[in-house]
Amino acid sequence: MIKGEDREGLSAMATLDVNGKAYEVKAQPDTPLLWVLRDELGLTGTKYGCGIAQCGACTVLADGQPVRSCQLPVSALGAMKITTIEALGGSHPIQQAWVRNDVPQCGYCQSGQIMSAVALLQSNPKPDDAAIDAAMEGNICRCGTYQRIHAAIKEAAGVTPPPVAVAPAPLAVPPLKG
């Protein structure tokens, strides 16, 4: 919520509800939420990707809905409750499934992917493939781990069992000739 502009009219004080905590921030009303999260609040888990809301790396939840924080001005937030990747704490079921399914490669898109998956499971606890595709559309993974992302979401939803670790078969070594 914007409280008022300073005397130069360049910035205003805003109260943001982020991860269940109220923060007073001073920012221009058109400042994207992403920069307030990263630069003002030090919550760097949310990443800058494309800057035009097309890649999903900056996804956070606003009142439980996934939004692209790179294009969402702080003046549009009002009393919305913002949830970032930091609120999950590393022990959220989707994060645990992510690890078990070896989803992360470079990791850059992961916070946005995970936040979209969390929103999906909050609204649809047992999604089918079509629901997963629809919810994850617009979250780009440059490493191409889409199949593992699907598997992790299904596992977290209890739709499929967790992967079973299988030891690799030993390599056949030809006998030495003497």
SSE layout and pairing:
Layout: E1 2-5, E2 12-18, E3 21-27, H1 33-40, E4 59-62, E5 65-68, E6 81-83, H2 93-100, H3 110-123, H4 129-136, H5 146-157
Parallel strand pairs: 2-6
Antiparallel strand pairs: 1-2, 2-3, 4-5, 4-6
Helix pairs in contact: 2-5, 3-4
Can I get a quick summary?
By secondary structure, this protein is of the alpha+beta class.
Strand content: 15-25%
What is the oligomeric state here? single chain
Number of helical segments with 4 or more residues? 5
Task: Kindly state the percentage of residues in helix.
Answer: 25-40%
Biggest beta-sheet profile: 6 strands, mixed
General description of the model:
The protein is an alpha+beta fold and 178 residues long. It has helices at residues 33-40, 93-100, 110-123, 129-136, 146-157, and strands spanning 2-5, 12-18, 21-27, 59-62, 65-68, 81-83. It is 28% helix and 16% strand. The radius of gyration is 20 Å and the shape is elongated. The N and C termini lie far apart (82 Å).
